[in-house]
Write a sequence for this structure.
């Protein structure tokens, strides 16, 4: 399996030390917030620890004269209320500090993950399930959010509570406290075993969740095909199998917790029984036994909650592994450190002895060389798999070539910033993707600097106005997911408008006129004739009738250029292009 794909699917695990070191990078800028929260946690634990002492004094003075007892009761009641109120204030302040810090951290992490995904090449996206990527950006960052805002503070509070409470227990009776410590050692051993078992279960659970989400995403996207071939039953069975696999893993986790929690509760009951039995033997007063009992509950409560915190820690650890595994996948196409920012291109394109393969040495292009001059229209023809679309993808650096050079205006595209290069190239593909929203936002891509007048001008230029202004809301007309409420030809015209409005100097058309009705095709052909004046145009088309007016036609076969010339020149040669043309002419 590809190493990057293994990392994405979670097959790579990080050591706890490495994991928390990387998490610390996000915590470091907010260290003062966590320190401040820690101070409030200390105050909170101290306040909480004083309450049993006050109650102990009341119990020990219960046989005092009525007037004195009344004073003690009032003192304890007022003190109890005051401390409880102060305690709640500390809890509120601490919670607000941590929530703010945690949410900022997760916001930054989510942005980092999304930006990292955007930098990946198309080749990497082909290997990475979309559902798995969505799970990482959405679900796993949420699990990390819970870790920063709740789990960390609970762990700190539990540790402080355990230390302070145990110190008070030692003060009351060191012998009784020592006996209770033995119970804690047994619980910690059980917790260590539990942590190991449930950690493996959580990793497996997350892998199954990611796989299930990827399966759902893929099949929702391909639902039309599934229904067309009546494969609903097969897909439902496959989904049920994956769902059952996840269900079984969830049950394993439930069973682990159902065994751990009762064991901890049982040990606490044993400890309470020992307190009552040995408390009198060790000469503790009634009030001290009551206080010891209350402290014992406070002592075991953090240990009991440790199971829940371990649950959250494992969830966060597994989520962090998945997120960091994704962030460790290096984008295959990156800017060089000294890459240039180019504001405008004349549009000269040159391929020099280019070799390219998607996998190892299964060459798609073999020593391909050609030159396209500025403002020329160049068409690429050939059988499926000849390398036509690959040439267009390499020009915009969707992939990196293995050998040779690709130049724009005599500059190697590897020396040009990717953003600068792609800004100058407008792409119009066969499968037009429209975002949900409205027509205007799909044309401007939410660029607020583009006003309505410019949008109207461009729509008229590419003939998109012919159908847009027949709609009730015009440019504000709704676009549903993937633009399914528009015909393929209408989507293509919107694609033309989207391309032209961003002022490209190089235009790419990859089967942009395929599968379109005759009326819309005439509008598109008229638009294309106008767009030729914009800049250099590269066209891929199976229908040779649509490229007869191209300045240059390059014929590809098995990844090599076999012919090059104008339509008339290639017909006179009676070579590869002539055979393709005759074949299409006879079929029509």
């Amino acid at each position: 399996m590809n190493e990057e794909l293994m990392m994405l699917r979670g097959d790579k695990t990080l050591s706890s030390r490495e994991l928390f070191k990387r998490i610390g990078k996000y915590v470091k800028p907010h260290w003062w917030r966590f320190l401040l929260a820690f101070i409030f946690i200390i105050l909170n634990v101290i306040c909480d620890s004083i309450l049993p002492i006050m109650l102990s004094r009341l119990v020990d003075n219960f046989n005092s004269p009525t007037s004195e007892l009344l004073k003690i009761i009032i003192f304890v009641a007022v003190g109890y209320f005051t401390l409880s109120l102060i305690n709640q204030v500390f809890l509120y302040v601490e919670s607000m500090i941590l929530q703010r810090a945690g949410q900022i951290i997760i916001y930054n992490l989510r942005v980092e993950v999304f930006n990292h995904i955007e930098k990946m090449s198309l080749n990497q996206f082909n290997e990475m399930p979309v559902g798995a990527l969505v799970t990482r950006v959405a679900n796993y960052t949420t699990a990390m959010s819970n870790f920063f805002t709740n789990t960390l503070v609970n762990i700190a509070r539990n540790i402080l509570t355990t230390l302070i409470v145990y110190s008070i227990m030692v003060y009351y009776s060191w012998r009784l406290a020592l006996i209770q410590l033995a119970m804690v050692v047994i619980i910690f051993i059980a917790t260590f075993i539990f942590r190991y078992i449930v950690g493996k279960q959580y990793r497996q659970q997350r892998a199954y969740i990611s796989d299930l989400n990827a399966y759902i995403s893929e099949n929702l996207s391909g639902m039309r095909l599934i229904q067309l071939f009546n494969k609903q039953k097969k897909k439902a069975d496959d989904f049920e199998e994956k769902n059952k696999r996840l269900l079984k893993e969830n049950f394993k986790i439930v069973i682990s917790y159902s065994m751990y929690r009762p064991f901890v509760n049982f040990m606490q009951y044993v400890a309470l029984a020992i307190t009552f039995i040995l408390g009198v033997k060790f000469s503790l007063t009634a009030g001290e036994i009551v206080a010891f009992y209350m402290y014992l509950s406070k002592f075991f409560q953090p240990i009991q909650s440790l199971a829940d915190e371990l649950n959250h820690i494992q969830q966060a650890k597994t989520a962090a592994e998945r997120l960091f595994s994704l962030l460790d996948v290096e984008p295959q196409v990156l800017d060089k450190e000294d890459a240039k920012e180019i504001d405008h291109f004349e549009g000269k394109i040159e391929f020099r002895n280019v070799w390219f393969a998607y996998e190892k040495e299964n060459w798609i292009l073999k020593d391909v060389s050609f030159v396209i001059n500025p403002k020329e229209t160049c068409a690429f023809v050939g059988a499926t798999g000849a390398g036509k679309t690959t040439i267009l993808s390499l020009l915009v650096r969707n992939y990196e070539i293995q050998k040779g050079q690709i130049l724009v205006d005599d500059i190697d595209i590897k020396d040009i910033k990717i953003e600068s290069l792609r800004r100058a190239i407008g792409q119009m593909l066969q499968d037009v993707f429209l975002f949900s929203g409205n027509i205007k936002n799909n044309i401007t891509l939410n660029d607020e600097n583009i006003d309505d007048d410019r949008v109207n001008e461009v729509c008229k230029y590419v003939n998109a106005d012919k159908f847009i202004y027949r709609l009730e809301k015009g440019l504000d007309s709704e676009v549903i997911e993937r633009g399914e409420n528009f015909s393929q030809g209408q989507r293509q015209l919107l694609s033309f408008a989207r391309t032209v409005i961003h002022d490209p100097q190089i235009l790419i058309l990859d089967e942009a006129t395929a599968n379109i009705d005759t009326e819309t095709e005439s509008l598109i052909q008229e638009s294309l004739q106008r767009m030729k004046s914009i800049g250099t145009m590269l066209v891929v088309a199976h229908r040779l009738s649509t490229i007869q007016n191209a300045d240059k036609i390059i014929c590809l076969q098995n990844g090599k250029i076999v012919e090059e010339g104008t339509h008339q020149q290639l017909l006179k040669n009676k070579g590869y292009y002539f055979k393709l043309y005759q074949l299409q002419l006879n079929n029509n």
About this structure: The mean pLDDT is 83. The CA atoms of residues 223 and 443 lie 27 Å apart.
